[in-house]
Amino acid sequence: MWFLKGKKGVWIKLPREHSNLVDSAVKAGFRFHHAEPDYLMLVNWIPNTPDTLPANASHRVAVGAFVMNANREVLVVQESNGRFSGQGIWKLPTGGVDEGEDICTAAVREVKEETGIDTKFVEVIAFKERHKSFFRKSELFFICMLQPHSFKIQRQVSEIEAAQWMAIEDYMAQPFVRENELFDFLTKIGLSKFNGKYSGFSTVLSSTSSCKKSYFYFNNNDAGHI
């Protein structure tokens, strides 16, 4: 019927309460596309031509926060869960960006959740991409410079083993940082930004063609002529 009507791609969104129909849909030629807590999306490409249905999301987004106070101490944590737990490694606060959340907002939230420290977003100072990192998906990881607006630490008991302000020299002297080229480089970028010798990406709230507001990230230092 769909073929006679000239349809090429068919989508079926099955609510969780109709999960009993999954087997029938698969036997009819449908394949899984993606799943959410309350539904499963299935698709079927009908003609004998290359499938041009858009793929599921290929990336997840995460943030790391570089927060330094006037005493040149950086805010660091030890995780109680995950790959770094139990190793005595002091690292920057990190976490995933929630659905519908801006990068700049996520960085501030993660720091508040993990350490209790209030901060203000300054810039995205660097980002990296790695593949097959999370359920075979790629990851975009943004390092953000944040300015502290409070200093008394209240760690997140459920996920953080310890948190402290650490002298930047002591943080950089950790074997974990010295021997990891990426972390060493990111720390040097953050320190360079703190010393006023590096410019990252600031934000401006702008309207899209759909009249929705979204953050645009740009190099504010070199944008004076625009």
Keywords:
single chain; 226 residues; alpha+beta; Aminopeptidase; Nucleoside Triphosphate Pyrophosphohydrolase; 2 domains; four-stranded mixed beta sheet; three-stranded antiparallel beta sheet; 5 helices; 11 strands; 19% helix; ADP-ribose diphosphatase activity
Topology:
Elements: E1 9-15, H1 22-27, E2 31-36, E3 39-45, E4 59-67, E5 73-79, E6 94-96, H2 103-115, E7 119-134, E8 137-148, E9 160-167, H3 168-173, H4 175-178, H5 181-194, E10 202-207, E11 213-218
Parallel strand pairs: 4-8
Antiparallel strand pairs: 1-3, 2-3, 4-6, 5-9, 7-8, 10-11
InterPro entries: Nudix_hydrolase, NUDIX_hydrolase-like_dom_sf, Nudix_hydrolase6-like, NUDIX_hydrolase_CS, NUDIX_hydrolase_dom, Pre-Nudix
Keywords: Hydrolase
Protein name: Nudix hydrolase 2 isoform C
Characterization of the model:
- This protein has about 230 residues and is α+β, with helices and mostly antiparallel strands.
- The longest helix has 14 residues, at about 180-195.
- It has helices at about 20-25, 105-115, 170-175, 175-180, 180-195; strands spanning about 10-15, 30-35, 40-45, 60-65, 75-80, 95, 120-135, 135-150, 160-165, 200-205, 215-220.
- The protein folds into two domains: about 5-45, Aminopeptidase, CATH 3.40.630.30; about 60-200, Nucleoside Triphosphate Pyrophosphohydrolase (Alpha-Beta Complex).
- It is elongated, with a radius of gyration of 23 Å.
- Strands 6-4-8-7 form a four-stranded mixed β-sheet, with helices on both faces. It has a three-stranded antiparallel β-sheet with strand order 1-3-2. Strands 5-9 form a two-stranded antiparallel ribbon.
- It is built from five helices and eleven strands.
